[in-house]
Amino acid sequence: MRNTSDPIKENSNVMNTQGGEKKVMKKILSVALSTAMAFSMFASVAFGDTAVSPQQQFDALKAKGVFNGYPDGTAGLNKEMTRAEFAKVITKLLGLKEITGVFSYTDKNYNAKNWAAPYIEAVTAAGIMEGKNVEKKIFDFNGKVTVAEMATILTRALELEIPAETNNSAPAWAKGYVQAAINAGLVDANTNFSANASRELLVGAAYAIDQEQSLKVSSYEVTEAGKVVTFKMSDGESVKVTLDKALEANKETEVKFTYKEKNFTEKVTYKTTVAQAVASVSATNLKEITVKFDGTVDPNSAESTNNYVISGLTFKSATLSDDKTTVTLLVAEGNTSLTNQRSTSLQINNVKNADATKTFTQKVEFTPLDVAVPEVKEVQALGTKAFKVVFSEPVKPETVNATSFRVDNNVIAASVKYAYPNVAIVTTDLTAGEHTLRVSGVQDYSGLAIVPVESKFTATEDTAAPKVVGVKSNDLKEITVEFDETVKSVSSAYANTTGNTAQSIEINDTKVTLKFNNPLNVSENTVYLTAVSDYSNNSANVDTKVTPTLDTVRPTVVDTKFKMENGNYIAEIQFSKSLKVSSAQDAENYVLKDAEGKVVTESGLTSKGHPVITPQYTENTKTVKVNLGSSLKSDATYTLTVSGVVDTATIGNVLLPYTATLNANTAQNGSVTRVWSDVNAGVRYVYVQFNKTLATSGDGNALDAAKYMVTNVDSNGTPVGTPYQIAKENNDITLISTNTVRIAVTNNVAITDWTKAKVSASYIKDSEGKYFNSGNYTVGSNVGSSEVIATTDDVYATSRNEVKVKFNTALSNVNLGDFDLNGIRPTSYTMADSNKTLVLKFADNTINNDVNGYTLKATNPSTQDSFGNKLQAFTASVKDGIAPTVTLKDIVRTGNTVTFTVYASENLKPDSNYGPAYIQGLFSVDAGSGVTATITGATVDNTDKRTIIVTATVSGNTDGKVATVKFDGAKNKAAKAINDENGNALGDFSFGKEL
After folding, report:
1. pTM score above 0.85
2. How far apart are CA 238 and CA 243, in angstroms?
3. For residues 869 and 737, is the Cβ–Cβ distance under 8 A?
4. CA 291 – CA 494 distance, rounded (Å)
5. Residues 820, 824, 825, 826: is their CA dihedral positive or negative?
6. Is 786 left (phi over 0), alpha (psi -120 to 50) or beta?
7. Do strands 238-243 and 8-13 pair parallel, antiparallel, or not at all (unpaired)?
8. 646, 623 in Cβ contact below 8 A?
């Protein structure tokens, strides 16, 4: 654990998991920029925990061979240093290579016998020092070193930048070097640069440089689940490095960081025994699944069956191994089994690792493989009146009977109790002593039968009643009591008081599970069990204490699917836990909005975006199916928000609001939307357009020639004769848009008329990996015109200045001049439904409310799709798609009755399927604070069908108050209760008047 008193330096770095070159630092780098010459003439720098005296510094450097000291054993710190001594220190500090046999200077006694010659040649060759007299080549090795000279040499050694401007008292030749040292904080500007430097000064400088050069990582600590590494440095400080990506557990990884302007690359291993991943999922029999983690997991979440889902299966238990790394899932007895050698998906939800730093929510594929026959794992005598047989895996109960067992090679008279999944308790009289058991005929759930093998066991008299060895709870309504031996029966059980009796008692070998209708106390409870008997008929009343563990984990959404069923859009939402049916099926817990955040009120949804059809909950898959109706836009994106859903815990945990994004296009069933053919440069091409983006690789590859066939059709459009493969090679198929292929007809195909042919495509997937499928993995369409065709029976005026027209394909280039409405040209347009719908906009009030007698034409049009296919000329009658509007006629008060009369722009027609109460509920009346207003009637006048009359009684002081009537247009749009004669729903309105 790091000493919290250590100074911490923060680093935010990205770890290097792929290694990389080691960058060789400059010999001294900028290390000595923090060189601490902690003396009067040099800038002082703290040495942290390693700050020592000059003598201690000298001793440390002497141990490294940088200094030798004098023959009398002293350091001579007060003496002035010579140029020879300085040359040696620099050579040793920088790790320069000593040069022998070369003598660049002419000083007297400068020869092979001169101890300083190799060091002087080394610093000379490095360009760090030069002679005192360059012309005469005199080094002056016994000469003293001034402070100016020392600063100059350090500046050269450190490769500091020489400034253009100087402000110091050093000699002219040294001013630039000294200024660089001053700017770097190595020397004080007020120093006497002409004075000689002492050995103590040299020791201090050398020691600081050495410390920087030898700076290294002493140790490290990984915290925050591998996200943070704190390095303890050799200078006593700590560097905290926060990684962009957490370290992978138990794997050596390189981490890079910078400290004191020095780059470090350290190999770090995040060592942990706590689980970081699901290691494997397997099944060696058809009733048990083994989930192995790569470390320890939290027992509470790991042993919750709610946290594991396989479609169609229910789990009886989830048991964590003693080392807390492996969970064994037991499929419920009465449920179906796994299928041998068939790939299966296990959804794991909300399982936490042991220190709660990770939560596992993922889907894992595995393939059950049961090839081993069941074996007898254990035989245990239960006194002298019964014995217990434990099998190596779950076995079928119908194969476990008295004829399955022989004792001492004799058929026995016995009763057999099967305890799921793998225990048989055989009641029969035994003599005390050793016996031999032979088992035959017992089968596992894949039908493999046990190989008869003899097992020995010893029976002894049992005179002690069962004793409690453990107890645990499952929320507040279930307790499991474990005994020291197999339990035969329990007469009754209750918790705390006799009034709270267990509603069910389940015995499974040594464990007794009690379930209560009434919840236990949150604090300690005393549980009483009466007449607990073993198979030797020893019996006792027992009690035990338990403090329940509450289930406080909220349910979460683990998967959402969006699809089409019978023309309706269906959202399937899978949860992590079992839900209370009432909350799961409450339509108000689901709200659909469009991409702009507005509530969707299309058919099948209420005015508040709730589904009209009650959602359906399936317990074994923990899935809710929400029907969102059939009127969503196929090219739109929606959001479905789920909230208020509660789990089955005694104190229900509520789902935090969850929003799923639903793309209507991906929900569409895959289909061919258009097929056409043309001839270009003598080659016939067939174009196949799908309604989704195509896969272009893998087994669903849309560019596979073998998947496209063409067949002749009769006069009714029904395929006749032999289907032909259109193209010979895959290269004959070209993807010309994300959802369209062009196929060159390179095979010999006997198609008599290409306008009377059908093209089919088989085993093709969309970009999400889903097959285009109409029931047999084949989709297709008859070859049609290459022209863009308007849906002339679906042309509507949606307002007094808009007309909407649909086409058989997406438009790419629209020419407004192609269209006219009773001779009037549109002024602009917008596109919708993946560019398959064109909304033409005209001048205000171009169209009458009744939309009577309007015709939209396109004559010799140039509008085209993205493939250059032009729009086919058309004439279409415009239908009424304009919602009626209303104006206020009057608000009148007579006594305590207020009558609101509004007048519609056209005749209205209430839907007879809605009674007066529903119609009345579309309106609300308010008459101000302190006044109670109650609606007594809301009708469309039978004679003047444009008139709506709403009546309300008011009580309270209405003087000066404003009476307001409001109509819920969104609710009406969803229900279509009040419409015009063409089915357009009346929209929102609100009118008020002072009474």
Report:
1. no
2. 16
3. no
4. 36
5. negative
6. alpha
7. parallel
8. no
At 21, the pLDDT band (50, 70, 90 cuts) reads: very low
The dihedrals phi and psi of 31, each to the nearest 5 degrees, come to -55, -45
Per-residue pLDDT of 359-404, as tens digits, reads 898 989 999 999 999 999 999 999 999 999 999 999 999 999 999 9
- Average pLDDT in the 113-142 region? 92
pLDDT at residue 808, rounded to an integer: 87
Q: Which secondary structure element, helix H or strand E, spans residue 232, and what is its range? A: strand 228-233
- Residue whose entry in the numeric block shows the structure tokens 């719908």: 837
- CA-to-CA distance for 953 and 899, rounded, in angstroms? 9
Spatial distance between the Cα atoms of 911 and 983, rounded to a whole number of angstroms: 9
Q: Which DSSP state fits 124?
A: H
Question: Angle 870-876-879 (CA atoms, 0-180°, nearest 5)?
Answer: 130
pLDDT single digits (tens) 693-727:
899 998 899 999 999 999 999 988 899 999 999 99
State whether the Cα torsion 116-118-121-122 is positive or negative: negative
What do you get for the CA distance between the two ends of the chain, in Å?
Answer: 79
Rounded Cα distance between 669 and 326, Å, is 41
- pLDDT band of 335, cuts 50, 70, 90: low
The amino acid at 423: V
- The residue among 406, 417, 415 whose CA lies nearest residue 441 is 406
Mean pLDDT for the stretch of residues 207-218: 75
Pairing state of beta strands 454-459 and 947-955?
A: unpaired
Paired strand residues for 468: 483
Encode pLDDT of 648-700 as tens digits.
988 899 999 999 888 887 787 788 989 999 999 999 999 999 988 899 998 89
pLDDT recorded at residue 212: 64
What's the rounded Cα separation, in Å, for the pair 407 and 455?
10
Residue 29 confidence (pLDDT) above 80: no
Token representation of residue 896 = 């305590």
pLDDT at 783 (0 to 100) = 92
Q: Which residues pair with 733 in a beta bridge?
A: 743
Contact indicator for 422, 287 with CB cutoff of 8 Å: no
865: Cβ contacts below 8 Å, ≥ 6 apart: 788, 809, 810, 811, 812
Residue whose entry in the numeric block shows the structure tokens 């009754």 = 492
Cα separation of 300 and 291, whole Å?
A: 15
Long-range contacts of 675-684 (CB under 8 A, 24+ apart): 675/759, 675/780, 675/781, 675/782, 675/783, 675/784, 676/783, 676/784, 676/785, 676/786, 676/869, 677/754, 677/757, 677/783, 677/786, 678/786, 683/744, 683/745, 684/744, 684/745, 684/754
Cα separation, 660 vs 336, whole angstroms? 32
| pLDDT tens digits, one per residue of 288-302 | 999 999 999 999 889
CB atoms closer than 10 angstroms to residue 117: 26
- Which residues sit opposite 797 in a β-bridge? 803, 880
